[in-house]
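For reproducibility, we list the full input for the histidyl-adenosine monophosphate complex.
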Amino acid sequence: MKFKVPRGTQDILPSESWKWQQVEAIIRDVCELYRYKEIRTPMFEQTELFQRTVGDTTDIVQKEMYTFTDRGNRSMTLRPEGTASVVRSYVEHKMFGYPDQPVKLYYSGPMFRYERQQAGRYRQFVQFGVEAIGSADPAIDAEVISLALDVYRRAGLKDLKLVLNSLGDGESRKAHREALIAHFAPHIGEFCTDCQSRLNKNPLRILDCKVDRDHPLMASAPSLTDYLNEESAAYFENVKRYLDAIGISYELDPNLVRGLDYYNHTAFEIMSTSQGFGAITTLCGGGRYNGVSEDIGGPHAPGIGFAMSIERLLLALEAEEKTFVDEPDLDVYIVSLDEEAHRKGFTVLNDLRNAGIRADMDYMDRKMKAQMKSADRFNAKTVIVIGEDEVKENVVQLKNMEDGTQQKVKDSLLLEKIKEQLK
Ligand code: HAM
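The corresponding predicted structure, in tokenized form, follows.
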């Protein structure tokens, strides 16, 4: 066939989409529990928004964005992530003026990154994320982490690990930056050209380079933790204390720097520890970003959030050999034996649906046996059979598929009987 789904994207067929719906329902429930409200932003934004926030020297901006010039000669980019758009919207709609701060938002939708396709890595993927903007209380960092873990736990995942780090504030970062430059500069010729250009622009990015990952200087690089100033260290202590208070365990990883530039203070990832999971074990990533609002012309508005892809959540469920319960498709399937019966069946179908009963019938003019097979495949709890006699007598045959019993029911009593049976 000539046309195929584009590389790095996938069709979610009905045999899978019901799982997505279950995850989406869990997400809605958990967000409601924590009072996060949904925000929907456009799928593309001005390119400059991502350059300013995600950062010019990141892999995302340098190599992975779907950028195009629109007919008005503006540079636009399909969103590679959600935080930039949400903060843009927060500033544009002056949400900083809302009486209740922080503003707690969540989103779920497709994101686009031109990445090399592999298990768990797509070019279009769906991120669920939350952003709490307007508070610098370390308790909200713990709330956001707890929300992410709650979503995974409710979905049934057990093999999870929370990894935590602090990137500190501007002052701490500056001290660390100088130490990094001093560490890498004498040997920078041994690194890739991207790293060479990052050395003076943004040496922290060298640490998450995929090409030079195994260079010995990586492991011995100065750790941010040693450069946290007093205020940053105290903030991080408080975040940990709040996590401890609600029984969330974590592993500290001083090398966790995250791949986006806007982070400061708390950075975290949730990984799958399941044996069956592939090479990419990060399920969710997030952290604090206190400067983004100001960077794009808004007021000071400290924020924290995370994002997780639904694709990886479903892969983790598979790795743990868990799945959701597949709900029966149908309450009632109507089997009709001739044209008259088909016409009657169609009106019965309409009455059932109007009464909120999930119902369907055959549209392929098939024999009774084939129609009964469909009823089985759809897991119909009840089957209505209509033939010539049933049309004449104003009745139908009602078959209870759970216990196999069958009874003749008058048309006028049908809805009542079915409701009784479905209880
Ligand atoms: P990120 O670490 O770039 O952070 O992505 C977060 C999550 O999105 C990853 O942990 C993974 O689940 C999923 N993800 C990323 N790229 C792909 C891909 N190519 N295929 C499948 N899944 C993928 C962010 O995007 C930040 N905006 C998170 C955040 C929100 N920080 C603060 N607020």
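The first strand starts at residue 37 and ends at 38. The radius of gyration is 28 Å. Both points were considered when choosing residues for closer inspection.
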